[in-house]
Amino acid sequence: MLVHIVMFKFKDENKKVNIIQAKQMLENLMGAVPTLRSIDVGVNFVEADRAMDLSIITTFESKEGLDAYDIHPEHQKVVEFIKSVVEYSKACDYIKE
After folding, report:
1. Residue 77: how many CB atoms within 10 A of its CB?
2. Residue ranges of the domains in the chain?
3. Cβ 92 vs Cβ 56: under 8 Å
4. Could you read off the pLDDT of 27-69 as tens digits, one per residue?
């Protein structure tokens, strides 16, 4: 099992609305992307300098599954929106045994 985690820091403009939209779009990927085994999307509630605004934890059977997710047209629509509303993101990928 491969775990893919991404955390996002959103731009201040329309921040709350954009976070809600990104969360919905990400959750809608479940069932739309065949290789996506699970997705957990969380909105941060703690105000701190080191805090990120939104995070996802996704799982895949393999690296190939993650690669297929990355290029899937539905995922690319979400990526396009998120890139337009975030300052930056951080990611971590690991194999869960």
Report:
1. 14
2. 2-95
3. no
4. 999 999 999 999 999 999 998 989 999 999 999 999 999 999 9
Locus of tokens 């809608």: 28
Separation of alpha carbons 2 and 67, rounded Å? 11
pLDDT, tens digit (0-9, with 9 covering 90-100), for 5-22? 999 999 999 999 999 999
Evaluate whether 8 touches 55 at the Cβ level (below 8 Å): yes
Beta strands across the sheet bearing 38-43: 38-43, 54-60, 2-10, 86-95
SS3 86: strand
Distance of CA 52 to the CA centre of its chain: 12
Fold of 2-95: Alpha-Beta Plaits (3.30.70)
The Cα–Cα gap between 93 and 4 comes to 5
- What is the dihedral sign for C-alpha 24, 27, 30, 35? positive
